[in-house]
Amino acid sequence: MVKVGALTAFGLLSLAGQVMAQQSVKVMPFGASIVTRCWRNNLDAKLKAAGVKNYDFVGSQQGSQDCLKQFPGTDNDHEGHSGSQATDYAAKGNLTTWLNQQPAVDVVVMFLGHNDVILGHKPLDTIIKAYDTLIEQMRKKNPKMQIVWSNLTPVDPKRWDTSSNPNNSKDIAALSARIKEYAPSKSTSDSPVYFVNNFEGFNPVSDTDDGEHPSTSGNEKMASKFLPAAKEAIQAVSRSSGIIRGVLGVRRVTMADRRRTK
Ligand SMILES: *[C@@H]1O[C@H](CO)[C@@H](O)[C@H](O)[C@H]1NC(C)=O
Ligand SMILES: *[C@@H]1O[C@H](CO)[C@@H](O)[C@H](O)[C@H]1NC(C)=O
Fold first, then answer.
1. Which single residue of 10, 74, 207, 248 could bond 44 by disulfide (Cβ 3.0 to 4.6 Å)?
2. Where is each SGNH hydrolase-type esterase domain found (predicted)?
3. Ligand 1 geometric centre to CA of 63 (Å)
4. How far is the CA of 152 from the centre of ligand 2 (A)?
5. Is residue 252 within 8 Å of residue 243, measured between CB atoms?
6. Sign of the CA dihedral 212, 61, 89, 129?
7. pLDDT tens digits for the chain (262 residues)?
């Protein structure tokens, strides 16, 4: 931790250098298999087209080459792990591990919960408790974490409601409705939660490959839905931490700077 009051001119120079070297906003797309899909690349292209460029997607995983073919030159990094459940992540601390592997993450773009329902058959209250834990883990790592939180896309009842689990599509709809209430309720001024409604307007037949995972049209819808919230979150971080007016000129040293220089 740099003690700002004790900075020498040299210290300030090197601090400014470090901040400039790392000033792009770190954005972690986080979740399960749907996060591996090309909506991220589509979102990256849309953000850049909208003039938002000072960010970097981070994560230990890489999307498929197909995503790069569809969206050349886009950022393919993410933290989506197929088959994963929010309840397991919360219990096992995976998110903390992944956040620790990256330079200070500023924004988490979260899409997670399908597998808790369709594989884990977890009660909705249990899933919401896991979300509480995940938010705590994000804020423990960064008290100013900007959290872009989507509810879930619907699943096709013809594909996913089986004789042993007849309520999957209804339970996904119910969880999505819960997230719509829950996400805004977790927002704070230091660490806003930006709710994204990917349930609405998504057709689980025509917008998916398999009744669950987004097809090209589904990826387009998701990217368009994520765009305004992702833009707002990235710009909020830039406003609070990216201001350097000349190397020795006026600048604000923010908590984000201090985190980065730890
Ligand atoms: C989550 O963490 C547990 C415990 O370390 C590990 O066994 C599991 O493989 C991790 N999950 C993923 C998707 O990496
Ligand atoms: C499915 O939902 C109905 C009511 O909506 C409920 O009575 C039934 O127990 C549920 N079945 C399962 C397996 O969750």
1. 74
2. 61-220
3. 19
4. 20
5. yes
6. negative
7. 444 454 455 455 455 444 544 579 999 999 999 999 999 999 999 999 999 999 999 999 999 999 999 999 999 999 999 999 999 999 999 999 999 999 999 999 999 999 999 999 999 999 999 999 999 999 999 999 999 999 999 999 999 999 989 999 999 999 999 999 999 999 999 999 999 999 999 999 999 999 999 999 999 999 999 999 999 999 999 998 754 433 333 445 555 555 554 4
Q: Give the closest ligand to the alpha carbon of residue 167.
A: 2
Q: Is the dihedral of CA 7, 10, 11, 12 positive or negative?
A: positive
- Residue in 26, 7, 27 with CA at minimum distance from that of residue 17: 7
Pair 25, 107: CB distance under 8 Å: yes
Instruction: Enumerate residues lining ligand 1, CB below 6 A.
Output: 81, 84, 92, 94
